[in-house]
Amino acid sequence: VVISEGCVTQGDSSDASEGGKEIDLTAGSSLVLTHKIKLVPSGFGSGSGSCGCEADFAALRERLERLEREVSSLREKCGGPEGGCCTSKESKGAGCSIKTETDECPNECSDQGRCVDGKCVCFPGFSGPDCSESDCPGNCNDKGRCINGQCVCDPGFTGPDCSENSCPGNCNNQGQCVNGKCVCSEGFSGPSCSDQSCPGNCNNKGRCINGQCLCNPGFTGPDCSKRSCPDNCNNRGRCVNGQCECESGFTGPSCSDESCPGNCNSRGRCVNGECVCDEGFGGPDCLEITCPNDCTDRGKCVDGRCECESGFTGEDCSQVSCPGNCNSRGRCVNGQCVCDDGFSGSDCSEKACPNNCSNRGKCVNGKCVCEVGFAGQDCSAKGCPGNCNSKGRCVKGKCVCRRGFKGPDCSQCEDGMTGPNCDT
């Protein structure tokens, strides 16, 4: 018999010294069976908190009675000499002198009754020719024991026929038992509804402690459903979806930093509320484009470029300018043009002549007009009279005339020749 834990007194039930008593079940017989039984004090398990002890002890008493009957039966069958059992099935008693009834009961009454004159006298809770039928509904569905026509269910089952799954602690009267599981009332949770629950189960973003949510970092609210902001935005802004919307004059993830005008327009850093602008930008909000070296105070800064005053040039107006900027035909050095080859003049606007005509002529549109007595592209050679009138070559100041011409300047025809080309 399985006795519920709550129905057993404290201590080792096998120790006869703790209120237990060893009883001789059939005193004075030649065969004695003993069993240590720990009896529960009178009144234990009664009342509103009985825990079902009456049924357990009823089953125990029934088993003891059955044990006594079995012992009596054994004593009748085993009455032979020197305690041996009778060899004949028809003998019993001391000296095997008593003849037994020949009628036997079906299936030995299924161990649930006594055989009397070939018929089973069933124990309470059983019936049928062989006492195999239980008087309990559904024979307790093999999930309990039938005692006096009532099911004593095994742990985990309940109901008149033990067909229903039971719930731990009967859900502590704070929920309903459905298919062996507690459906807790609002405000309670846990397998037995013994725990106080939190709103929304803290939305899996915190822990429920004594009915209140202890939220994980980054979440807040009674049910931990709201995103929290760092340092609660330092009371300098509003927390919206976990991000701080800072008041004017403050910035940063927690609104702890002083802000700058226009947030420096992403062209500088905000330090203690003032913009430290990147190179090329200026102004209180770094919105202005600056010029190199502030144009050296020799010009105006327009859209990041210097418009230099007259007489100055360069990216920062630091250089002295040249007339006409040398017309892109030379370099301006200290305010004077150093002209490229082929050009001359204060502003390099004039075409230059080779070797400056050797100072023996004038440069006109890039060509030398040589003085009398000089010739050549740069007037470096001695000239011939009339430049040989284009009818000969000037060699060392003398004309070497072409065929048909003669004279110091090749202006005359040779003897016997006439015509414009002296060829007739």
TrEMBL record:
Disulfide bonds join C105-C115, C122-C131, C198-C208, C215-C224. Residues 1-21 are annotated as: Disordered. Residues 101-132, 194-225 form the EGF-like domain. One of its GO terms (biological process) is motor neuron axon guidance. Keywords: Disulfide bond, EGF-like domain, Glycoprotein, Repeat. PANTHER family: TENEURIN AND N-ACETYLGLUCOSAMINE-1-PHOSPHODIESTER ALPHA-N-ACETYLGLUCOSAMINIDASE, TENEURIN-A. This is Tenascin-like. The gene is LOC104947883.
